[in-house]
Amino acid sequence: MICSILSSFFNPKPLCKPLSPTDIFRIFPAVFLTILGGITGVSTAQAADIPLAIIGPHEYDLPVDFKPFNVLVQYGDGNAAGSTYNSQGARKPQGGSHTWAGMTKYVHFRSFDALPHVGFAFEVIQTESYTLANGTNYGGLGGTISGPAVWFKPNKHSTFGIQTFLQTPSGTRDALATHYWSNLSSFIFDYEWKHFSFDGDLGAIVNMTKHVDGQHSYTPGTTFHSNLRFSWKAHRVVEPFLAFDWQNTAGTRDRTVQNWIDNSSSREVAMGVGAMFTLTKNISLTTRYSHSVEGRNTPETNAYYMKFVYLW
């Protein structure tokens, strides 16, 4: 879940030579992308339940051998899920809801002289959400997500790495707390052509057992996901892109009675279009719209996304 901001503040082509603090602010982005997804990335996307749907083009177009710098990102999305997919994969006009979600993310990027040509980042993310469903509404802060990422460049046009995050079980309201710890890990990649870019991830979310006093104990199923972005470098300020997001979640097990919960497994495929706008050399805004094309046991994705980035 490394911020796509990096790419938006560096050249369209991957950077492999050392950067000075002045260079970081001077080099105008290759505008990269758009996006952002549902903040489900990591639990982040409550609107669309597809992990890391928040990424955009050039999300993983990352530099190596650079001076330390920081990034602040605000993600937001709204999902008007008027329908749900049942256990047979049929789309039914029932059980929908309106959700708004956000993530405030701080990232520190750095490299080490002792490990040349390798980049590192550490992220701290606070999730926020608001839900309107079944005549009720509630909102507040969800779990906090944090963890590192590391990457290298197999060649000057590509990037490959891994990231792993831990999400806390906390929340300001009981309905917003998961009550179990989660680990979100994924492989990340990027490849840059002269006029196009392709990047994405492949990962899994592994959950601990949920324990609540007076209730059964449950272990949510493992989620596998992939998020792909293909963009066209149309202009220095605007870069349109296509988005593909997929998730498949195993069923939940009731540890108290040692049974699987019926219809608790789910899957979803969503596709979307978006664009990123580079407002200044250190500020960018990304937008996207996505909709489900297939699913099972999940609300549909009918969502719009935005991402605001500030680098210093």
Summarize the structure.
The chain is mainly beta. The protein has helices spanning about 5-10, 20-25, and strands at about 70-80, 85, 90, 95-110, 115-135, 135-150, 160-165, 180-190, 195-205, 220, 225-230, 240-250, 255, 260, 265-280, 285-295, 300, 300-310.
Secondary structure blueprint with pairings:
Blueprint lengths: L4 H5 L11 H6 L42 E13 L2 E2 L5 E2 L4 E16 L2 E19 L2 E17 L5 E10 L14 E11 L3 E12 L10 E2 L3 E10 L5 E12 L3 E2 L4 E2 L5 E15 L2 E14 L1 E2 L2 E10 L1
Antiparallel strand pairs: 1-4, 1-18, 2-3, 2-17, 4-5, 5-6, 6-7, 7-8, 8-9, 9-11, 10-13, 11-12, 12-15, 13-14, 15-16, 16-18
Report on this model:
With 312 residues, the chain is mainly beta. It is 4% helix and 55% strand. The chain has 2 helices and 18 strands. It has a 12-stranded antiparallel barrel. Strands 3-2-17 form a 3-stranded antiparallel sheet, with no helix packed on it. The chain has a 3-stranded antiparallel sheet with strand order 10-13-14, with no helix packed on it. Strand 13 (253-254) and strand 14 (259-260) form a beta hairpin. The radius of gyration is 19 Å and the shape is globular. The model is unreliable at 1-48 (pLDDT under 50).
